[in-house]
Amino acid sequence: MAVALPEDVREFRNGAQRAIQIHRLFLALFLAGDLLFAPGEWWLHRAHLLPFALRAWVFAPLAMFCIQGMAEWSARKHPGIRENTLIASGTLLALVTIAAYPEAQPLRAALLLPIVTSILHLQVEKVWLAGTAAFAAELALTLMPLSNRASAAVIFQSLGQLALWGLVLLWMTAASHIVLRFGLRIWNELRVQTRAQTELWVRQILSEKEAKTDALTGLYNRKSFDEYLDFALQISDGTNTPLHLAVIDIDNFKQINDQFGHLVGDEILRRTARAIQQHLAAGDFLARYGGEEFAVIIPEISHEQAVQHMEKIREYIANVHHVELDGHRATVSIGLSTHRPGETRDELFERADQCLYRAKQTGKNKIVAWESAMSG
C-alpha cells in the first residue's frame, strides 16, 4: 500500500535529493576509511599488494563514482523511476564496498544503506523493494564464491552466514516499515490538525474583518473608527502632534436614491469610498461612519495642509462622471476640525459635524473648517 504525502509539502518532496546526499556521504566515508587504514592494509596485504591496491584504491572508488554519477543523472532525467534508481544504486554501492574488502564481514552492513535511504521516499513498497534488493545482493555474495568442489562445511558456513544476514536485513526492513508507517500516520494527523487550525484561524480572521468593516464599501465601520480615533487621540496628546478629523457627506443622497433607486445609490457610495481612499496619505484612516457619511482621521500634518488635502478630494469627487445619474454629479460636503489637547472623541467629532452642517447650509459641495468658520 502506497502512503505518500501531498506533493505541495516541500519538506518531503526532497526525499530523492536527500537520498543522493546520503549516498555521497557513504562514498566519502569509504574514501576516508581507505586513507585512514591504508598503512594497516598495506601491512596485511604486502604479499600481494598490487592486486589489493588496484581493487580497493582504484577500481572500487572509480566504480562507486560511476554508479553515483549515473544514479544522479538518471534521477534528473527520469524522475518517474528515480526512487527505484536510487535503491538500485545504493545496493550497487554496498556491493562494491563489500567486494573491495571481502574479508571484512562487518562491511556487509553496507547493504542496510538502500533500506535506510528508502524511508526518505515515503512509500512502504520502496522499503520492501530495497530490502529485497539487499537480500538478493547478499545471496549473490554468498553463493558466487562457492564451487562444485566446495566442502559441506564451507557450504553450511556460507548458508549460515546467509541466514544470519538475511535475518538482519529482514529485521531492518520490517523496522523501517514500522517507522515509516508510524511517521506517516503522525504526519497525516498533524496535517489534519494543522488544516483544521488554519481553517479556524481563517474563519476568525474573516469574522474579525466582518466585525470591523462595512460590507457595502469594504471600509472600516463606525466601531473600528471609534476605536482608532481613541488611539489616535492618545498618540496626539502624548506626542503633541497634530490630529484632524474630517466628516464627509454625499450631497442630496436621498434624492439620488429616490430618483435613481437604491442600487444606484449603493454604487455611488462605493465609488465615492474608492475616490476618497485613492487620495489618502499612508497614515490616514478612512471609515464609513453611517449612511452616506464618511470620516477621515488625518495625523501629523498642519491644519492648512489638512484643509488642502480634503479640498483636493472634494474637487476630484465633484468631477467624477456617473453614467447612472444621467449627467448629474454626486458632490460631497466636508466638515473638518483640528484636535485640541485634552479634547475627547465626542467633542472633536461634534465640532467637525457642526462644520459639515454649516457646509450643507451654505451651498454644499464645499469644505468648512472649524477655525475658518469661527474666524468668519
Structure description:
With 376 residues, the protein is of the alpha+beta class. The protein has 14 helices and 5 strands. The chain has helices at residues 10-13, 15-36, 38-44, 49-77, 82-100, 112-118, 124-143, 152-212, 222-239, 253-260, 262-278, 303-318, 345-361, 370-375, and strands at 243-250, 285-290, 293-299, 332-338, 367-369. It has a 5-stranded mixed sheet, sandwiched between helices. The longest helix is centred in the middle third of the chain and has 61 residues, at 152-212. The radius of gyration is 40 Å and the shape is rod-shaped. InterPro entries: Diguanylate_Cyclase, GGDEF_dom, Nucleotide_cyclase, Rev_trsase/Diguanyl_cyclase.
Key attributes of the depicted protein:
376 residues, alpha+beta, 5-stranded mixed sheet, 14 helices, 5 strands, 8% strand, disordered N terminus, nucleotidyltransferase, transferase, Diguanylate_Cyclase
Q: How is this fold's topology laid out?
A:
Blueprint: H1 10-13, H2 15-36, H3 38-44, H4 49-77, H5 82-100, H6 112-118, H7 124-143, H8 152-212, H9 222-239, E1 243-250, H10 253-260, H11 262-278, E2 285-290, E3 293-299, H12 303-318, E4 332-338, H13 345-361, E5 367-369, H14 370-375
Parallel strand pairs: 4-5
Antiparallel strand pairs: 1-3, 1-4, 2-3
